[in-house]
Amino acid sequence: MSAALAVGQLVEAAGALPAALPSPPQHTWYVGPFPIRAYALAILAGIAVALWLTRRRWVERGGEADDVLEIAFWAVPFGIVGGRLYHVFSTPDPYWGPNGDPVRALYVWEGGLGIWGAVALGAVGAYIGCRRQRVSFPAFADALAPGLLLAQAVGRLGNWFNQELFGAPTTLPWGLRVDDSVAAAAGYPPGTLFHPTFLYEMVWNIGAALLLIYLDRRFRLGHGRVFWLYVFVYTLGRVWIEMLRIDEAELVLGLRLNVWTSILVGVGALIAFIVVGRRHPGREETVSLDAPDEAPTTGSEEPVEESTDDEDPSTTEDSDDSEESEQADAARPDPGR
């Protein structure tokens, strides 16, 4: 087969591929009267992946595998509530605006979990769980960080099924095709392709998770440094991805609120990473808060002998009397000879 023929076949195969990324035709299925929503499945799958990876990393750090589930019992509900609160208050118009419906703030399955609220309140829940398990919170955060990125990556599939949070129009071959009604609601004609920002963030988060795992093993990071590195790397991607999005958002000085949040949080995370690294280089020796504090010892230390200068006078006198008695017995003739 000639090279020209092979190239021609590749071109034909490429032309047969769809020139856009299609959206799923359905986001909810019913089992009897009970709805099964793709968004909820994506969130649950992300949590499962995070628990699996965190469990392995926690054991590698010296923790007990069961600690992860006990801490997640607190962290996951706190995180979901925090994520929803952040979304509702950072995008208030659909709920509190002129035509808003406050009750919809409870409809988590429709999408809308702000990552910063989820991380902030989820951290509170994780701290409570760590204290109850008597383990180090910074050490657990380090074990969790890569899994948290993977959870976010998997969770973004829910946005794909819901046909939401996409970016500006594009002519790229991987542009996202949405329903005509969705495009019209966004103010664009039918057939318009959009940047698949959910896909961009998925790829970014998976790459960031692999980077964190590598750096953690290479430099044995600890004392919360892996977590701060997670925040910094994630915000780097979130800034440019957020600027592509066209969904409703609060604007501050011409930029979306989440852009400013990412910049400020990212700078803070970088500072924390540097400061913690200077104060606590390396990794913790133990993740347990109940580990005994052993005083450092060196091989040059020798036991100190007690001084005998201050002996009891009565003891000295008894010793002298005993010596005199032994001398007298030695001088007395033996009657058996």
The assigned structural class equals: mainly alpha
Strand percent estimate:
5-15%
Query: So what's the overall shape?
Result: globular
Cα distance, first to last residue?
Answer: 128 Å
Uncertain runs are: 6-17, 294-304, 306-311, 330-337
What is the number of helices? 11
Major β-sheet strand ordering: 1-4-5
The average pLDDT is: 85
Percent of residues in helices comes to: 55-70%
Order of helices and strands: HEEEHHHHHEHEHHEEHH
The count of domains is 1
Largest sheet: 3 strands, mixed
Question: What value does the Rg take, in angstroms?
Answer: 34 Å
Secondary structure: number of strands: 7
What does this protein look like?
Helix 3 (65-90) runs antiparallel to helix 5 (115-133) and helix 6 packs parallel to helix 9 (225-242). This protein has one domain. With 337 residues, the chain is mostly helical. 60% of the residues lie in helices and 5% in strands. The protein contains 11 helices and 7 strands. The protein starts with a helix and ends in a 6-residue tail after the last helix. A hairpin with a 2-residue loop joins strand 2 (28-31) and strand 3 (34-37). The longest helix has 26 residues, at 65-90. The strands form 3 sheets. Strands 1-4-5 form a 3-stranded mixed beta sheet, with no helix packed on it. Strands 2-3 form a two-stranded antiparallel sheet.
